[in-house]
Amino acid sequence: MKKIKLAVLGCGDRGNVYASYALSHPDEAEVVAVCDVDPVALKSTGDKYRLPENMRFSSIDAFLRAGVKCDAVINATMDPAHYETTKRLIKAGYNQLLEKPVVNNAADLYELRDLAREKGVSILVCHVLRYTPFYRSIKQAILDGKIGKILTMEMNEHVGTVHFADSFIRGKWSDEDVCGSGLLLQKCCHDTDLMCWLNNATVPAAVSSFGERAFFTEDNAPEGATEFCYNCPCAGECLYNAQKIHLGLDNLPFQTWRGIGKHYTEITREEKEVYLRVSDYGRCVFKLKRNLADRQMVTVRFRNGSMATLTVVGGDVLPGRDINIVGSKGKIQGRMEDNVFHIYTISRENDGYKNVTETVDVTAQLGDGRHGNGDVCLMHDYVRYLNGDRSSISITALDDSVNGHLCVYAAEKSRKEGTFVPID
Ligand SMILES: NC(=O)c1ccc[n+]([C@@H]2O[C@H](COP(=O)([O-])OP(=O)(O)OC[C@H]3O[C@@H](n4cnc5c(N)ncnc54)[C@H](O)[C@@H]3O)[C@@H](O)[C@H]2O)c1
C-alpha cells in the first residue's frame, strides 16, 4: 500500500481530527500541505506537521497557484465555504475528503457531483457514523439477511444539554442564516445518510416533517434571568450557565475560545472570564435571538413502501443515538453509546417457534477516536480507498451520499411550507 499524501484545507477542529491519522499511522499517510485563512490555525497545524513555510497557504488561491502534489485534499472548511472550495478543488483535479454537509441545496449538490464525475475526481463525504463499529455491524447484519426486508426504521438523535448549548445555541451553527445549515442538515444529515444507506435496497420517495424552536425562547428564561450568565441570579440553578459549561467543564475549548484570537492552549483564565462577559458564549441561551429549531421530526417513505422516522431534539440530559429496525424476518435494536445492539429473530427448528436474541457487542472494536471511533475508521478506509481498495461497506462516495442530503432538503421544505414533499 502506498503512503497517501494529504493536504488540509481548513485547519480547525475537523481538519485536525482527520489529519492526525497521519501522526498515528505514519506508514499510511502524511500531511504535505496546509491551508487556512486564519493565521493562528495555519501556524499551529503547520507546526504540528513540521511543514516548511512554502507548504503553508493562507488562501485557497495561493494553494491552487502552488499546484501542490497530493493524493487528496481534506476539505474541512465551515459549511458556507463548501460549495466554492469544493468546486475549485474539483476543477483543479483534486480528490477530496469533504466534510458534511456537502451543500445546503439540491442544485449545488448535483452540480458538484456532476463536475466531479466529469473531471474524474473522487469526493468522499465525512459521514463518520457509517464507519463506526456500531453502525457498520448493523449494516453487515442487514446485508447478511438476518432481519429480511426492512419494513420500518425508527431513529433518534438526542443532543445533550451542554453540546446543544455550545454548538447550536451559542456556537457557530446557531443560526441558519449565518451558517447556511439548519439543525437537520448540520446535525442529522448523518442520520438521514444512515437511514438511506442501511435501507439502500430502495431509495427515498417522499418526506414530511415538523420542527421548531420552542424551548430556547425568551418565555422559557428563568424568572429574573439576565442577558449574560456572569451576573445572572439564576446561575446556580440553570443547566446552561456559561461559566459552569465553559470555565468549569471547558467543553470544546477549540471552539469556544476561538474568537479570542490565540490558540486555546495559550489562553488564560482571566482572558476567558472577560470573553464570557462579551461573547455569545457567555449569553443566556433563552435570550439569544437565533432561528435554529430545537426539535424536529421527519418521516420518510421509501419507494418500496418501507418507512423511517427520525427525531432530533436538543437539550436531553442523556444524549445519544438509538435505532430500531423492523424487518420481515427479525428486528435490530440498539443505542450507539452502549456499543451494543440486539438482533431478534424467531427460530422454527424442529417445528418450534422460539424467540432468539443475538447480542452484538462492538466494544472490542473501539479505539479512542471521537464519534464512536468513526473518525479513525473513516481515515483507515479512506487511505485504502485511495489505494484502490473498494472493499469497505461504509464508503461514502458523493454519489452514494446524495439521498441522505435530499431527505434533509425535502424535510426542511416540508417543515417550512407545511406540506409533504416528494423526492424525484
Ligand atoms: N463529520 C462530523 O461529524 C462533523 C462534526 C463537526 C463538524 N463537522 C463539519 O466540519 C466542518 C468544519 O467544522 P469545524 O468544527 O472543524 O470548523 P472550524 O471553524 O474549527 O474549522 C474550519 C476552518 O476552516 C477555515 N476556513 C474557512 N474558510 C476557509 C477557506 N475559504 N479557505 C481556507 N480555510 C478556511 C477556518 O479559518 C477554520 O480554521 C463544518 O462543515 C462542520 O459542519 C462535521
Summarize the structure.
The chain is 34% helix and 22% strand. The protein has a nine-stranded mixed beta sheet with strand order 14-13-12-11-7-10-9-8-15. It has a six-stranded parallel beta sheet with strand order 3-2-1-4-5-6, sandwiched between helices. The mean pLDDT is 95.
Topology diagram in text:
Layout: E1 4-9, H1 13-19, H2 21-24, E2 29-35, H3 39-48, E3 56-57, H4 60-66, E4 72-75, H5 82-91, E5 96-98, H6 106-119, E6 123-125, H7 133-143, E7 150-160, H8 161-169, H9 176-179, H10 183-198, E8 204-212, H11 242-249, H12 253-256, H13 269-275, E9 295-302, E10 307-316, E11 320-327, E12 330-335, E13 340-347, E14 354-361, H14 374-386, H15 398-417, E15 421-422
Bound molecules: nicotinamide-adenine-dinucleotide.
Provide a descriptive summary of the structure in words.
The protein has helices at residues 13-19, 21-24, 39-48, 60-66, 82-91, 106-119, 133-143, 161-169, 176-179, 183-198, 242-249, 253-256, 269-275, 374-386, 398-417; strands at 4-9, 29-35, 56-57, 72-75, 96-98, 123-125, 150-160, 204-212, 295-302, 307-316, 320-327, 330-335, 340-347, 354-361, 421-422. It is α/β, with parallel strands linked by helices and 424 residues long. Helix 5 (82-91) packs parallel to helix 6 (106-119), helix 6 runs antiparallel to helix 15 (398-417) and helix 10 crosses helix 15 (398-417). The model has no long low-confidence stretch (mean pLDDT 95). The protein has a nine-stranded mixed beta sheet with strand order 14-13-12-11-7-10-9-8-15. The longest helix has 20 residues, at 398-417. The site of nicotinamide-adenine-dinucleotide has 25 residues, from helix 1.
